[in-house]
Amino acid sequence: MTENIGVLGEKTPQRTGVERVVNAPLPTVYGKFQAVGYLDHDRGDEQVALVYGDIGTDRVLTRLHSECLTGDAFGSQHCECGDQLAAALRAVVAEGAGVVVYLRGHEGRGIGLLAKLRAMALQAEGLDTVEANLALGLPVDARDYGVAAGMLRDLGVESVRLMSNNPRKRDALQRHGVQVTEQVPLLIPPCESSITYLRTKRERLDHHLPHLDAVAHWS
């Protein structure tokens, strides 16, 4: 924890890490969740974990969902994010318990909304999602999962069954001290608008997407 010098010359502590701020019931079309709100003092982001049922400590069914305004709110078919979020919420309800950590500041794999839209414009001209980020002078993936691990620890979660097709997300969570006992596939049927993006995620970002093998009629 660092210190600031106050107006009277006194040292005041500057908070670091993640802090639970509020806990509120959140009825949704999927079921009644508990919305646990956090403040990330390191980055300034406001975060939320949607908790369903009595989650316990071990092998908790969990989704770390990166914010995606275009997919989550607007129903974009460029990606599968909105469908993955809905599928994860349904899954934890069907399980009877689980957590969906919604990670703000992760838009466009961490590059921000406007940069993501610029990258999408370049993809419309023929670049793939990796090439587009690099053409903008931006990292391919700038996301950090330390805050997610901190939120899970605050909730008492020690190990998870992680709903993700991304092995890098699993590895990052384990580096931050949360054990991943199982990686649960979250496979969404592709459409013509998303197939190129999904194939790039599989071929260049190591996502496990075996269901794409059955799609041969879109080039």
Automatic annotation (TrEMBL):
<comment type="similarity">
    <text>Belongs to the GTP cyclohydrolase II family.</text>
</comment>
<keyword id="KW-0547">Nucleotide-binding</keyword>
<feature type="binding site">
    <location>
        <begin position="107"/>
        <end position="109"/>
    </location>
    <ligand>
        <name>GTP</name>
    </ligand>
</feature>
<dbReference type="GO" id="GO:0005829">
    <property type="term" value="C:cytosol"/>
</dbReference>
<protein>
    <recommendedName>
        <fullName>GTP cyclohydrolase-2</fullName>
        <ecNumber>3.5.4.25</ecNumber>
    </recommendedName>
</protein>
<feature type="active site" description="Proton acceptor">
    <location>
        <position position="141"/>
    </location>
</feature>
<feature type="active site" description="Nucleophile">
    <location>
        <position position="143"/>
    </location>
</feature>
<keyword id="KW-0342">GTP-binding</keyword>
<feature type="binding site">
    <location>
        <position position="81"/>
    </location>
    <ligand>
        <name>Zn(2+)</name>
    </ligand>
</feature>
<feature type="binding site">
    <location>
        <position position="84"/>
    </location>
    <ligand>
        <name>GTP</name>
    </ligand>
</feature>
<feature type="binding site">
    <location>
        <position position="129"/>
    </location>
    <ligand>
        <name>GTP</name>
    </ligand>
</feature>
<comment type="function">
    <text>Catalyzes the conversion of GTP to 2,5-diamino-6-ribosylamino-4(3H)-pyrimidinone 5'-phosphate (DARP), formate and pyrophosphate.</text>
</comment>
<feature type="binding site">
    <location>
        <begin position="63"/>
        <end position="67"/>
    </location>
    <ligand>
        <name>GTP</name>
    </ligand>
</feature>
<dbReference type="InterPro" id="IPR000926">
    <property type="entry name" value="RibA"/>
</dbReference>
<keyword id="KW-0862">Zinc</keyword>
<comment type="pathway">
    <text>Cofactor biosynthesis; riboflavin biosynthesis; 5-amino-6-(D-ribitylamino)uracil from GTP: step 1/4.</text>
</comment>
<dbReference type="InterPro" id="IPR036144">
    <property type="entry name" value="RibA-like_sf"/>
</dbReference>
<keyword id="KW-0686">Riboflavin biosynthesis</keyword>
<feature type="binding site">
    <location>
        <position position="79"/>
    </location>
    <ligand>
        <name>Zn(2+)</name>
    </ligand>
</feature>
<feature type="binding site">
    <location>
        <position position="164"/>
    </location>
    <ligand>
        <name>GTP</name>
    </ligand>
</feature>
<dbReference type="GO" id="GO:0005525">
    <property type="term" value="F:GTP binding"/>
</dbReference>
<keyword id="KW-0479">Metal-binding</keyword>
<feature type="binding site">
    <location>
        <position position="169"/>
    </location>
    <ligand>
        <name>GTP</name>
    </ligand>
</feature>
<feature type="domain" description="GTP cyclohydrolase II">
    <location>
        <begin position="19"/>
        <end position="185"/>
    </location>
</feature>
<dbReference type="Pfam" id="PF00925">
    <property type="entry name" value="GTP_cyclohydro2"/>
</dbReference>
<comment type="similarity">
    <text>In the N-terminal section; belongs to the DHBP synthase family.</text>
</comment>
<dbReference type="InterPro" id="IPR032677">
    <property type="entry name" value="GTP_cyclohydro_II"/>
</dbReference>
<dbReference type="GO" id="GO:0009231">
    <property type="term" value="P:riboflavin biosynthetic process"/>
</dbReference>
<keyword id="KW-0378">Hydrolase</keyword>
<feature type="binding site">
    <location>
        <position position="68"/>
    </location>
    <ligand>
        <name>Zn(2+)</name>
    </ligand>
</feature>
<dbReference type="GO" id="GO:0003935">
    <property type="term" value="F:GTP cyclohydrolase II activity"/>
</dbReference>
<dbReference type="GO" id="GO:0008270">
    <property type="term" value="F:zinc ion binding"/>
</dbReference>
